Amino acid sequence: MLGYIHLKEIQSSPRFGKVLPVDYECKDNQTKIYPTDEIFSEIKDYFMKKESPEYIWLKGINDKSLFLSFQRLIAMIKSTFPNQKIGVYVNASLFIENYIRKALLACDLVVINLNSVIPSHFYRSCICTKDSDIKEILYGIQTFKKEYKGYFSVYTMFLKGINDNREDIVNLKNFLLHVKPDHFSVNIFTGNGFEPISDEFKLQVKEILQDMPIEVSFTF
Description:
The chain is α/β, with parallel strands linked by helices. It has helices at residues 36-49, 67-80, 98-104, 119-125, 134-147, 166-179, 199-209; strands spanning 11-13, 17-23, 55-61, 85-91, 109-113, 151-158, 183-188, 215-218. The chain contains 7 helices and 8 strands, in the order ββαβαβαβααβαβαβ. Helix 3 links the parallel strand 4 and strand 5 (109-113).
């Protein structure tokens, strides 16, 4: 967005209304710092000049080492603008930590990226540390959903050669039936040299998932 580093153009969502995306990507692995004050300053400036959106949409957090600063930003927004709704997009691997789950309870919308529940495929398709325990991560997601009062959504991307198989679809479906998110969104990933998944697999995905008792969106 013109004049801002972290704020992006307002988006209109049929479900959530006007959404103000706040994007941050740590490009320097040596000095990982989440610019809490800088982002909050931009948000305050925006709110002084324009109409507040229905949601501030925070994304770009995949690293636990940045989360305390991210949590501080959430608290600053809620303290200064108590009626402002906040949505966040985070990697499922963060749910292994209780303090992260507790902090996200303050958000009105939480979307997580979970591409597989099969250990070997999870580690290849999700951003996580080598010592991540998928059983603890999945347990953390279940625990969070039981406590969370807001809108919870799961976002899955299928990657050719990793999780584009029937076993992945069925296992993921069984997990989601247990967790019962409010919404489940399915997409494909073709970046970083990945080829598109086959049309046959797309049909298989829809056939297996379309009868779930939760809302499912297919974006392919």
